[in-house]
Design a protein that fits this description.
The complex is a heterodimer. Helix content of chain A is 65%, strand content 0%. Chain A is elongated and about 65 Å long. The radius of gyration of chain B is 24 Å and the shape is elongated. By secondary structure, chain B is an all-alpha fold. Classes of the chains: A mainly alpha, B mainly alpha. Chains A and B meet through α3, α4, α8, α9 and α11 of A and α1, α2, α4 and α5 of B. The complex binds zinc ion. Zinc ion (ZN) binds next to α1 and α4 of chain B.
Chain lengths: 225, 93
C-alpha cells in the first residue's frame, strides 16, 4: 500500500508545521516555495477585502511575503504558520486601508458586530403576536431553490450572484466568510488570525451567510417569476 | 399575506424565527445536546427551516468555487522577486 512517490512525501511533510518551520529556519527554498504557492491566492483575496483594489492588494501581498522572509527567524510557533502569515497580512492591509481611507474591518469588535446587524430572515416572514400564531412560524415557506437542478445551482451565473452578494457585505463579515467558506479555514484559524472571539466569529459568519442566502433566493425568485 | 403553512404540533415550541438564527451554530456543532435535539425535532416537521439549513449548506459548498477565478495568479516576475528576497536573507553577510 505504500507506493507513494518521494515527491508526495516531501509535500505532505510541509503540511506539518514543525517540519515546515524547521525547513524555513534552515532557509530551505523548497519549503518557502511551497508556502508561497499555497497561500498567495488566499492572501490576495483577503487583501482585496481590505483595500478593494487589485494593484494595492498586490503591493500588500508583496509586503507580506517580505515580512515573512524577514520574520521567519523570530517566529516562535505560538500560532500556526498559516495564521502567523495572515496576521502579518492583516496588519499591513489595515495600515494600508487607513492610508487609502477605507473602513477598517476590525477597528473594534463591537463596531464590527453592529456593522450590518439584522436578523437572518426578514421578520415579516414569520407569524408573531398578536397574530393567530404567536410562535414565530413561517407565514409562507421560502422558495426551495436548493432543489433546483444541479447544473443550474453550479452554473457560473449562480456563482457570480454569490460573489456580488459577498462583495456587498460589510468588511468584517466578508472577511470571515471568505476565510471560512471560500478558503475553507477552521473557526479556530480565523479567530486566531483576526484576533476575534469564537462567538464574534460565528455571529459575523452567520450574518454574512444569511445575506448571501437571501441574495440567492432573490435571484432564483426573479428567475422563476 | 395568507398562511399556506401547515400548523406545527403543539410539542414543537421552537419558533422558526429563532431557528434561522441558529443555523450556523448548528452547523458548527456549537449547540448543546438537548437544544440540538429540539432543533432536529423541529427540522423533521418544518420544510421552511429545512430549506434554509440546506441552502446555507449549499452556499458553503458553492463558495468553495469562488477560489477558482476571483484573484490574479501570482505573476512570475513578482514570484521571482519574492524568492530572490528569500535567497538574499539566507546570506545576511
Ligand atoms: Zn421552522
Amino acid at each position: 500500500m505504500d507506493g507513494r512517490p518521494a515527491l508526495a512525501d516531501s509535500v505532505v511533510a510541509f503540511d506539518d508545521d514543525v517540519v515546515l518551520v524547521g525547513c524555513l529556519r534552515d532557509r530551505d527554498e523548497a519549503a518557502f516555495t511551497w508556502l508561497l504557492d499555497r497561500y498567495d491566492g488566499c492572501l490576495r483575496r483577503v487583501a482585496m477585502s481590505y483595500v478593494g483594489n487589485r494593484a494595492i492588494a498586490d503591493e500588500v501581498v508583496q509586503e507580506t511575503w517580505m515580512g515573512v522572509v524577514s520574520g521567519i527567524a523570530r517566529f516562535e510557533g505560538r500560532s500556526s504558520v498559516k495564521t502567523w502569515i495572515f496576521r502579518i497580512l492583516v496588519n499591513i492591509a489595515r495600515a494600508r486601508g487607513i492610508r487609502e481611507h477605507r473602513s477598517i474591518p476590525f477597528a473594534s469588535a463591537s463596531r464590527a458586530l453592529e456593522d450590518g446587524a439584522g436578523p437572518a430572515i426578514d421578520p415579516d416572514r414569520f407569524l408573531t403576536a398578536p397574530a393567530a400564531d404567536p410562535t414565530g412560524h413561517w407565514v409562507s415557506f421560502p422558495l426551495a431553490w436548493e432543489h433546483e437542478p444541479e447544473e443550474r445551482l453550479e452554473a457560473a451565473e449562480t456563482v457570480a450572484v454569490m460573489r456580488e452578494a459577498m462583495a456587498d457585505l460589510p468588511p468584517a463579515q466578508r472577511e470571515v466568510m471568505t476565510l471560512r467558506d471560500v478558503d475553507g479555514w477552521t473557526s479556530v484559524e480565523v479567530c486566531d488570525a483576526l484576533n476575534i472571539s469564537e462567538t464574534n466569529q460565528r455571529v459575523l459568519l452567520h450574518r454574512a451567510r444569511s445575506k448571501v442566502r437571501r441574495a440567492l433566493e432573490q435571484y432564483f425568485e426573479g428567475a422563476s417569476a | 399575506m395568507t398562511t399556506n403553512v401547515p400548523q406545527p404540533p403543539p410539542e414543537d415550541d421552537l419558533p422558526c424565527a429563532v431557528f434561522v438564527e441558529m443555523v450556523t451554530d448548528y452547523l458548527e456543532g456549537s449547540i448543546p445536546g438537548d437544544l440540538r435535539v429540539r432543533l432536529e425535532q423541529h427540522l423533521a416537521i418544518c420544510p421552511g427551516c429545512t430549506s434554509v439549513l440546506d441552502q446555507i449548506d449549499r452556499l458553503i459548498r458553492l463558495a468553495g468555487r469562488i477560489t477558482e477565478d476571483d484573484v490574479d495568479a501570482l505573476q512570475p516576475a513578482q514570484r521571482d522577486e519574492i524568492l530572490a528576497a528569500f535567497r538574499q536573507a539566507r546570506h545576511p553577510d
